[in-house]
Amino acid sequence: MQTNRSVKETILIEFLKNPALGPREMSAHLNEKYNTVKAAYAKLAEEGYLERRGRGNYQPNIPFTLITLMDKVSDLEKRVAALERGVQP
């Protein structure tokens, strides 16, 4: 697992690559404790990145993820523009 990302971020990225990975499979895939992975899945579902489809079954919420990423890109573009003007964002 990459150390510069949180467990939750890593799980989201890996899940988007392979949505067939449930918490138990993801736990084995990342060599993380099951309860840690299960808690991250629950948090990602609570935040809107995943949709829970029954016990242990999750699906990516692609529209929510794309909109969130677009908002983050827009915020970064505004910060870069401010820095280029010599203004602290």
Write out key terms for the chains shown.
mainly alpha, about 90 residues, elongated, Arc Repressor Mutant, subunit A, about 5% strand, 4 helices, 2 strands
What would your notes on this structure say?
The structure is a single chain. With 89 residues, this protein is mainly alpha-helical. The protein has one domain (7-84): Orthogonal Bundle (Arc Repressor Mutant, subunit A), CATH 1.10.10.10. It is 63% helix and 7% strand. The protein is built from 4 helices and 2 strands. It has helices at 7-17, 23-30, 34-47, 62-84; strands at residues 50-52, 58-60. Strands 1-2 form a two-stranded antiparallel sheet. Strand 1 (50-52) and strand 2 form a beta hairpin. Helix 1 (7-17) crosses helix 3 (34-47) and helix 2 (23-30) crosses helix 3 (34-47). It starts with 6 loop residues before the first helix and ends in a 5-residue tail after the last helix. The model has no long low-confidence stretch (mean pLDDT 90).
